[in-house]
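Newbie here. two chains, one complex. Structure please?
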Amino acid sequence: MSLIAFLGAVELGFIYGLVALGIFISFRILDFPDLTVDGSFPLGAAVSASLIVAGYNPFLATLFAIAAGCAAGFVTAWLNVKLKILHLLASILTMIALYSINLRIMGRPNIALITEETILTPFSNLAESLGISSYMLMPIVFLVFAGFIKLTLDWFLGSQTGLAMRATGANAKMARANGIFDGKMILLGMAMANGLVAFAGAVFAQSQGSADVTMGVGVIVIGLASVIGGEALLSPKGIARATLACIVGSITYWLAVSLALNADFIGLEAQDLKLVTALLVALALVLPGSRFTRFFRKGEAK
Amino acid sequence: MIRCDDLHITFNTGQVMETKALNGLSLAIPKGQFVCVIGSNGSGKSTLQNAISGELQVDQGRIIIDDEDVTDWPAPKRTGLIARVFQDPLAGSCANLTIEENMSLAFSRGRNRGLGRAVTATLRDDFRRKLERLGLGLENRLGDLMGLLSGGQRQAISLLMASLQPSSVLMLDEHTAALDPRIAAFVMDLTRDIVKENNLTAMMVTHSMRQALDYGDRTVMLHKGRVVLDVSREERDDLDVPDLIRLFEKKHGEELSNDSLLLG
């Protein structure tokens, strides 16, 4: 594997690490199997790309992308909390609706950003003035991004409100008996989770140079693979370690993908990626001791 | 103080399985009284507790706690007035949170939760002192996950948690039923102490006739969603378990003869 491929994988690992953190909030903290992410990831890309092309400041465009993601998560949670639609189905409904919405926002299936100024432009300028290639600097930039968000999330989950959110997912009846409005916690947590995913989508589009309406397909599976993989690697007990595991899992995943695609003797090609990911997640679920087992397998006690 | 006026709750209205869980139940409990509630399965004991705590909405009737009409309040809002301990030791706490985190959740009951730290050094010292009185050695295990503890230990902590914030009502739903007799006695003594110290109005649902007569100030028997027996003071002191069982069976006998009349 070349250095460029390695650094590219690390960069992707950090971006998708944000997706993993979002999925950690919905699946692990709130116990809410949320497929909205397949729609909110391209939503973040669509909103930021459309605004950037329309001449808005890229940072402002990214903020709007995050807000749009929060709104998507809120809608899924609202369908579940207020209209009592099964959580999985509620998230699928939002995901499908977002496909149309994303097309509407972009007005076409994809938008190129190669020539536009993005939130990453200042950093590539910085790299230039330092006399290094931007692909050397970018992984560090994303490390700072992801690290900052991880620490903020840790801080939040250690607060009274964060603890209330964790109790809601762990034991809703107990949470209510201690004065926690569990419905509000689900609305807040799902908005946070999808805001993070939309942020990842916005950053992904800007780093790859385009937004595409189909770029969300399978994001949920990649995110799950990262969360599960990270848990297997670090077997976290506390929150700080669990969020670290999400990012480590994501980097490991993308390194493994990059390795597999670069090793010609295996014979894998880029189009096999999703099949291999699905197989990996399936394998992780049936392995003994998987903490996700009860969620996705028939006949396990909830 | 709790006052229930003419409470009605019907499950599966209009269906074959229609059940009148509460059928015009009225009950007034003055401040500081400890009431034991007994009754057979389906008599409405748990429904009554769920109605008072807000987990179930009543179809008809009013619920008043400390002069506040809470009938339309959602359950979390009522927790400023009501603390609960459940029958299932696993239900009253979160297994995958630590002891101190669980206690912190209860410490914030009835108060606004912000972005302040959930567990601080001051709180930790406070929790440690509270746990010491249990004599179970849990004061040295604040960072342990709740799921590592036994049912009895968890139930004892649930009781402590219920008393971390001042409340006026303590609701106990067969909270010793899942424990072995020795631990059950320990938890009952703790219950009695906590109720007395905090001058709580307590309502304990129990299946044990012995408990229903030995603890508290008053015994109430429910049947078919109504109060059918209400004894306190001397009248209660004169009662023994066999008397209670006789009364209990008499109520059931009436039901049977009513049915036979219907069928006949």
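Moderator note: The CA atoms of residues 133 and 259 of chain B lie 52 Å apart. The interface with chain A takes residues 53, 55, 74-77, 79-80, 83-84, 86, 91-97, 101, 104-106, 108-111, 113-119, 145, 161 of chain B (CB under 8 Å). Thread marked as resolved.
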